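Section: Multi-chain targets

For targets with more than one molecule, the full set of components is provided together so that the structure can be written out for the assembly as a whole rather than chain by chain. Components appear in the order listed by the source. The example entry contains two components.
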Amino acid sequence: MVALTAEPRPAAPSDIIRLTDVRFAWPGANAFSLAVDAFTLPAGQRILLIGPSGSGKSTFLSLLCGIVAPQSGHIDILGTDLTRLSASARDGFRAEHFGIIFQMFNLLPYGTVIDNVLLPLSFARKRRQRATANSSAEDEAARLLTRLGLEAHLARGRSAANLSVGQQQRVAAARALIGRPELIVADEPTSALDRDRQVAFLELLFTEVREAGATLIMVSHDQTLAERFDRVLRLDDIATCRPRSGQGAKT
Amino acid sequence: MIVLRLALQSLRNRWLTATLTVFAIAVSITLLLGVEKVRTGARQSFADTISGTDLIIGARSGNIQLLLYSVFRIGNATNNITWPSYQDIAARPEIAWVVPLSLGDSHRSFRVLGTTPEYFQHYKYRQSHGLAFRAGAPFADLFDAVIGADVAAALGYKVGDPIVVAHGLGSVSFIEHDDKPFRVSGILEKTGTPVDRTVHVSLEAIEAIHVDWQSGGRIPGQSASADEVRRMDLKPKAITAALIGLKSKLATFRLQRAINEYRAEPLSAILPGAALQELWGLVGTAETALKAVSAMVVATALLGMVTMILTTLNERRREMAILRSVGARPRTVLGLLIAEAGVLTLAGTGLGIILLYAALLILQPYVDTNYGLHLPIEPPRPGELATLGAIIVAGCVAGFLPALRAYRLSLADGMTVRT
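Its structure, encoded as tokens over all components, is:
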């Protein structure tokens, strides 16, 4: 189940993610640090990344998405070495190629539902072009929201603040999917939902990810979801973490 | 655009604190501009009070003191000019006209000014405005009085009404010249100068009401009736000051020196404009202090805004993390917070200007009648606009403080969404 290669190898065309000799530590003495010797991921799969709380999942995702840069090593995403990019170029890269869903509190509560979905398009030109290829961006957002099972009157609603947690996660999924980015990263998106809703949400997400031809990386501490994914990876097998000494580790 | 709209919606979400902050800035701006308005209005009022007069003469005293008591009816003369000296100077060939002024009595807290009918012809204010009569005419009879617009309004006098002049300047005087009542012969148009608050009578009338008086009190056993007084020689013995107009301005300094060196008695001659400049030099410190205080109030309001934004940062870390996750650069987060500070300052400044003009519209008549201060309602001057621009820039610069903190927080938080 675990795709781990000890030796660096030439990137196959289908490899969407490739980490080599990555060393990262948060700033400050005795801060949490993470090391990945080698890690590759082929495109078009649904991956479940399992790790308990404090195992460095958030740090690993921050590195993948280019929010932080490692002190050494290389992170290749879609053939681009993030470590060669400036911080703002990484931000632009993330806007174009990543859709991100958080555990909860995904939405700007004072914004409208549609504005929340359209937010990434402000930072990503190609995604805007793709989203507006056949219709207006607003129509595309409404289409995605409908496909993800959000009632039309909620989608057109003024405020995102009155939605339930499940509805908020659907809006967050629509935001991640709009403009068809290559990578969807979800950080425990279902942990705030009850069991039935978890499954329903995942099914909708999977359908849309497949439709968009994207790769899904979902992080969870919950192994019961494993059978629904193409592959299941354990963070412990990929990365070596050294928690911050003295207190609880950063997650 | 969406990002800006969301930033505005975020602000609207915190409307209560945002509104209070905007109000604090607005009030400080109103104060700053208001102080400036009052300052320039007061200067203008003072400068407009007298024009067309080349020299003012009086007994030797400070320039400012002479200006204040002769033109503004503030304070008192320490001494008088004797009538012969006045006659002597008035006869000099370079003088075109001269108007004597005699002060010292009052009517229900309004000052009484003894002068000649030429006063109404030669006294000019606001560049070249002359005095005009709203009703009646200059004094013709010995016991005629011409009253200013404020006197008429405050006491409800009409032409023909009798008035009694009191000795001294208190508003309630027990020593009244009640045996010699005056009659209102004319009412002047409003001028916005101390003329509005003055009762004008002839020099002879001032003399007449003091005929049977000595050392500020009535001489016991002696009392001259009004009719007896009319038959007396009422040539004044002394006057308080005189306004002089010259045939040629070139003679101004020569005549001033001649009067200052007058041998028969110590006299002073002043140029009204020069004395005003001296006065500004004197009150300049107070003006600077006022300006400094109002500038500090603006600084306090901006500090309040920075505090407001800083306190919201913690609850907005989630907002920052979401923006970062969709590709916003830390720079964008920085820019949004600076823009927020800019929008608040801009709104505060706009509201402050509106408040100022609303206050001006409401208070202008009141201030005019009660303090004789005309506050002009006019668009902001270039200097004021520059000040407002500087305040808006200062607001944006102040926004850097919370913005840099948000920048650092959003870098440190990474992908972690904190609640």
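The longest helix of chain A spans residues 195-212.
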